[in-house]
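Q: I'm building a small set of examples for a reading group on sequence design. Run inverse folding on the following structure and report the sequence directly after it, with nothing in between.
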């Protein structure tokens, strides 16, 4: 995808440098996703891969830049490099928005922001404070610096750390250079900013092939402890939030992110990926979620693998290897496969196998016998996927909601681990004890619409 070097000036006159990615072919102004990396990382550490994938699959642009004092970007006059001041990095996001809005390639009304790890927390605040933002993508975020600090730093080492902060302040006031410490270390007893084994593995690998340097100012740790970027998360709405959390994150702990997410208001979407903090960066198992179509059109798809619920404001997204994911689409009555051609084509572009449970009656006149055939056909296809070791998502449209639920109970070899879920797209799903007829005129239940059992609600048991 076309990429050009760009630079822009912040409100305090610091030059930030980065890249602007655009699709190979595009017409007119496009939405823009603004991306900055996390703690001490530089843009060469796979942000180019993220942006290239986005712009190769979608008509959007991506503005990627290095944080101040890191990589290609400058720092403020008389300020040290490799110092992380969260309030300044948050302000820089807003300045990046202003710059993006000035570009000929960008539709300034359609701006999204993406952040990961430390910047994953930043975007929670920026999205709440800067209403030019139309969607927020937060990946493995640091949501509460104080709580995160006490998880990472042993309690017996805290007094020494506080004393170091005091000594550093006195030294700076006396004209001495700032104290710096390693970002990572293989010695668990040595001071470092990110004292986890997976941090050491990730950053040392990139040190060998990028301009990343293993140092950060000591004051950056002091700033981290006082940083609480999720304190306005309840004010983010109605801007949509998509948060990705690693199930076993020990760097920005999973439970802290989930607690912050619980305070966010709708519209919001939570996506949990397997693994730890840095699994979110490992292509193709990356967990970047999408714009809601009400805000960015067409929606930004997930890198590599995404399952799209077309009627929702967000995308239901599953991250796994390409060849393990399949979608079984249960269509609406009066629908044939051609009604879903655009969805099937898009899914194939993302290397996702899609089968449509074809209605037995092209005329669309559903009878009791036809319903049994629908269910039997869908359950057989579901079982076939399972036998091929596929992870299956049932996507139900309209009348297909009945079929999808019944197919789950009718299939005799459904593995709970292989069935990812059922996504209802404008589909029928009456509550237990109600009928299809109840949805209209309160007429008595028809034989194929009564809801008589429920193990994965709502399930429909025709008799």
């Amino acid at each position: 995808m076309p990429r050009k070097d760009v630079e822009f000036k912040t409100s305090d006159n610091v030059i930030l440098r980065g890249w602007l990615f655009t699709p190979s072919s595009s017409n007119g102004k496009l939405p823009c996703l603004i991306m900055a990396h996390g703690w001490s990382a530089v843009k060469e550490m796979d942000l180019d891969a993220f942006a290239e994938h986005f712009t190769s699959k979608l008509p959007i642009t991506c503005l990627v830049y290095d944080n101040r004092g890191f990589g290609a970007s400058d720092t403020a006059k008389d300020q040290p490099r490799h110092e992380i001041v969260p309030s300044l990095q948050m302000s820089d996001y807003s300045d990046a928005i202003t710059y993006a809005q000035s570009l000929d390639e960008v539709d300034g009304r359609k701006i999204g922001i993406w952040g990961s790890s430390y910047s994953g927390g930043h975007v929670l605040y920026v999205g709440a404070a800067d209403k030019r933002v139309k969607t927020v993508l937060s990946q493995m975020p640091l949501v509460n610096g104080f709580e995160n600090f006490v998880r990472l730093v042993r309690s017996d080492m805290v007094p020494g750390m506080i004393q170091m902060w005091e000594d550093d302040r006195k030294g700076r006031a006396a004209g001495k250079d700032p104290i710096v410490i390693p970002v990572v270390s293989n010695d668990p007893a040595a001071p470092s900013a990110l004292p986890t084994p997976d941090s050491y593995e990730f950053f040392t690998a990139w040190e060998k092939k990028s301009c990343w340097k293993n140092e950060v100012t000591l004051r950056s740790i002091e700033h981290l402890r006082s940083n609480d970027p999720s304190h306005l998360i309840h004010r983010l709405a109605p801007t949509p939030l998509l948060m990705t959390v690693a199930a076993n994150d020990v760097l920005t702990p999973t439970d802290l992110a989930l607690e912050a997410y619980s305070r966010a208001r709708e519209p919001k979407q939570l996506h949990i990926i397997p693994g730890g903090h840095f699994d979110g960066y490992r292509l193709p198992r990356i967990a970047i979620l999408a714009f809601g179509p009400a805000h960015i059109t067409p929606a930004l798809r997930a890198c590599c693998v995404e399952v799209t619920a077309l009627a929702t404001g967000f995308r239901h997204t599953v991250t796994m290897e390409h060849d393990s994911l399949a979608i079984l689409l249960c269509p609406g009555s009066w629908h044939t496969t051609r009604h879903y051609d655009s969805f099937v084509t898009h899914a194939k572009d993302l290397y996702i196998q899609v089968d449509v449970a074809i209605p037995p009656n092209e005329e669309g006149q559903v009878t009791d016998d036809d319903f049994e055939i629908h269910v039997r056909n869908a359950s057989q296809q579901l079982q076939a996927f399972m036998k091929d070791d596929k992870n299956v998502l049932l996507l139900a449209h309209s009348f297909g909601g009945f079929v999808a639920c019944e197919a789950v109970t009718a299939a005799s070899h459904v593995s709970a681990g292989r069935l990812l879920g059922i996504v209802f797209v404008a589909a029928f799903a009456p509550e237990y004890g109600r009928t299809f007829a109840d949805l209209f005129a309160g007429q008595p239940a028809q034989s194929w619409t009564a809801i008589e059992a429920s193990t994965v609600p709502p399930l429909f048991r025709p008799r």
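The CA atoms of residues 142 and 212 lie 21 Å apart.
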